[in-house]
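Troubleshooting: if your tokenizer reports a length mismatch, compare your output against this known-good record of 191 residues.
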Amino acid sequence: MRLITMKQFILDTNARARALDKSGRPEAVAPVYETTLTALRLATSDDDPQPAWERVVATLTDTRRLMIDALDQMPIDQMRRRLICIEDLPEVSGFTALEDIYALIGATINVGAPRYNNGDVRGCAALYWTTLNLIADTPATRGFPGFAKAVAQTRPALDLEIPVGPFTPAATDAFAWELRGALDAIARITS
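Known-good structure output:
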């Protein structure tokens, strides 16, 4: 399945969820999100090589608890957040130079910083987390200086211990800044 098709499927899911919520059937929204995540998980191929964005979709549709789940308290909001992360994914298959990674980081910060500044700290953190996963999962199409260093900078932020419950507002803010710090560290790599 192509990423654009997945994104359209998510748009349709969100429209259905809003309609169910408006019609007084909020209990039907969670099964809609669960079904969508399952369908997307099944639609990701197990083939190698798998596009990097598809590996991130596989992570986001996995049933195990993810770090971004701590951004929301309710399971329905956690599922919605995962779908938003998929909507935010660019179709990246590989990197040919550090400039490709810099461009991805620049585009991410151009969206994430306004989210943060407008009070959507959780949305900003989720976008940064998704981008770091994309960088970690994207192969170099051919080797180039600095690639291994860039991927290594993702590990500290992606390997944090996943909390059992939701983040407090202060922890959400700290998480967003930790992720931004990792992106900034990658952007400073020269080779």
